Amino acid sequence: QVQWTESGGGLVQAGGSLRLSCDVSRSSFSRDAMAWFRQVPGKTHELVAAINWSEGLTKYADSVKGRFTIDRDNVKKTVYLRMSSLRSESTARYYCNRVIWKYPARALNARGQGTLVTDST
Q1: 25 band by pLDDT with thresholds 50, 70 and 90
Q2: Strand 115-119 vs strand 10-12: parallel, antiparallel, or unpaired?
Q3: Helix, strand or coil, per DSSP, at residue 102
Q4: What is the percent of the chain where pLDDT is above 70?
């Protein structure tokens, strides 16, 4: 059972910015780390960024370093992905998931519906 909800996707021009949110307040599991993944139809599920919940340490895919920022709000129990300088290849459906910090590319739970980001250029 998916215990989080992604939101914030939409149409954005190349070079634009967007902030995605992942509400984990309904989740009952302990959080080691959370991550954002993305998938384009016909391509594999790709890790975008991960964050260690307690310490706030972060990891990024090389393709998004310097443009995307992952952070979390411990009070709101929300994980964010702030995306800037978006490119056409950023078009994808984005998902959040629970991961183990040591192995951030391995999503631990079933995916939710995700949120779609589309280049409108």
Answers
A1: confident
A2: parallel
A3: coil
A4: 95
